[in-house]
Amino acid sequence: VLRSLAPAAHVIDITHEIPPHDVRAGALCLVRSAQHLCPGIVLAVVDPGVGTARRAVAVEVGGGQSVLVGPDNGLLSMAVSMVGGADRAVSLTNAALQLPSAGPTFAGRDIFAPAAAHLANGVDLLELGDAVDTATLVPGVLPVTAEEDGDLACEVLWVDRYGNAQLNVDPADLDGWGRRVQVAWEGGSRTATVARAYGDLAAGEVGLVADSYGLVAVSLPRSSAAATLGIEAGDRIRLRRLGDDDPDGTEAGVTTAVHVRRN
Amino acid sequence: VLRSLAPAAHVIDITHEIPPHDVRAGALCLVRSAQHLCPGIVLAVVDPGVGTARRAVAVEVGGGQSVLVGPDNGLLSMAVSMVGGADRAVSLTNAALQLPSAGPTFAGRDIFAPAAAHLANGVDLLELGDAVDTATLVPGVLPVTAEEDGDLACEVLWVDRYGNAQLNVDPADLDGWGRRVQVAWEGGSRTATVARAYGDLAAGEVGLVADSYGLVAVSLPRSSAAATLGIEAGDRIRLRRLGDDDPDGTEAGVTTAVHVRRN
Amino acid sequence: VLRSLAPAAHVIDITHEIPPHDVRAGALCLVRSAQHLCPGIVLAVVDPGVGTARRAVAVEVGGGQSVLVGPDNGLLSMAVSMVGGADRAVSLTNAALQLPSAGPTFAGRDIFAPAAAHLANGVDLLELGDAVDTATLVPGVLPVTAEEDGDLACEVLWVDRYGNAQLNVDPADLDGWGRRVQVAWEGGSRTATVARAYGDLAAGEVGLVADSYGLVAVSLPRSSAAATLGIEAGDRIRLRRLGDDDPDGTEAGVTTAVHVRRN
User: Fold this and answer.
1) What ipTM did this prediction achieve?
2) Which of A200, A201, B162, C150: disulfide with A205, CB 3.0–4.6 Å?
3) Contact C199 B51 (CB under 8 A)
4) What is the CB-side half-sphere exposure of residue B35 using CA atoms within 13 A?
5) To 10 degrees, the CA torsion angle through A37, A41, A46, A48?
6) pTM score, two decimals?
């Protein structure tokens, strides 16, 4: 559809592997990519509410450099915020710039892709439909950390294909914590080593590594921390500062039972 | 190979995820895409008979607008029919327009891709090999529905990545059936609601929804109907009309045992 | 990143499906593709040592026709050898031609992709960093076959998506062996038929087929030999010549227990 309507556009497939219906996973993927997507047209669809009252929107950002096209269900909002917020937005109500649909269930093909293609061809945002107040766009919700009993309560944002569990924790949040940190989750706890690179960890050693997006990830060298420890995206995690001399109560490779609320 | 032989061609990857050896799945995928593939060259390979006597062919359709290239095993035929039938066809016998093969097992790389590339470069169809009678091309077999004891006997054509089970049923086939339909398969039966969009279904409610290809699909909102009900592509399904006041014998979320022949 | 830095480059995704951390699998994939990748820039990343002392390199081959970019961990070396060896190489030390990194863990995005993009734009190899002696590049290790007690001891290089198990065996190695060969692995043995094409095998018949890369593969028609026989990449295999009249001790479809050392 993109090629048919906008033959000159270059199409880059960021991913087709967002889990079905997982708007949050899609939104976080866009955030990870956002700084590399400008200028351009971004088409994103994770759309469990397709065919219902949720709006289809196009959101202009960066003084007109980029437009994000997709459902108004929070998918786009974190990326929009990250690049400075929405300048203008429209609801994709102009059926003349859409494909005739066999059914109401494939907005990606029939509504969003044509909108992205027309934008790539230079069609003005306001031709795609009615302007909407950018303040009415459904916001994204990025979880924040909290201090609880001296611990840092945080959350797994994403598990990458290597099994690294990215936390919503800035490396600076651990400044002064030293080299050893207790990582606790619903199913257990482990003492982790704060390391600069995956390759600096010994076999079986849980690490806290600043990942390529600048966030702290729970890692195991050459194996999946998520699968080994039994954690997944959305899980709550607690980080506890350990003195370098504190007994930590956990031997290398041994997981200790613990209770952490699950989100 | 395509880039080497036809540097100016735009290559679009429709899918690399057809199950191995599943010619029918590949054929149905082409049918779903067919209306968006014209004009152009379509290269399709699901080819369990590679290296045997099955022919390699190129089939021209649409008055020369498009050519489909692939094995003559029924993979291309349904798509060819859908766009009006074959105008001309050749068997890919001209070795001068193929790559030298290390073995007889990779026609996609050595025979089909070069043929598609040469066509994209403007080489005439008849240079690729000997003309063949289009009536001799292996036909595709699209299952038809039948009335059995007042029920509509149909079949699962495809399960999409969300677990929606597409049937070979036109929404018009259910005109006048009302809002409640019994869906029966080999392993059980459920009362389904005829709905306009996935989002119009309540949690756990089985729906019959006109999908994005204009066919009726068995769906569960935000979960996989195929996995939940235990149905897959090729399974036989029976649809039974229920009066709006009929007791339906099935509670929401409860599957009742039933016997339906499997294909 | 490639599009941003080299808008005119054509990007072809060979695969994103190398198993995590499996340098050998990545290296063999490059070897299979190598003859089709020239001229051009090849970007390859399987990099468990990212962020450690392993070098990031760019290796020029073919009298300047191609450059391979990636970690110096053996990933590139077999492909480099296959196309005639390295002409020049540099360590990617020029930070001015890299992206500023959020962490040390994403060399693909921040170091290798920018290097490939700059090369595609015509930047000279030596601008990317310090020249290194090509003799110091980490070599790849392609396993060789050996005769053991009259058998051919070999190894599974790769299992393709159809379950064919490619061996490091040239079809010429089996010249004069006749039509029946015993295939033995850690878990058992089977009598295989030397065949020209998968389609020439009967159902359930294990075949030795020259695959599309010109190597012998253990195959089962329309099913996965690797899954059925329980073999995987890296497994040791022994091939034993059988006279056409020898009783072979294995019935069709029956696997006989045997002991072969695993690598």
Assistant:
1) 0.84
2) A201
3) yes
4) 9
5) 150
6) 0.88
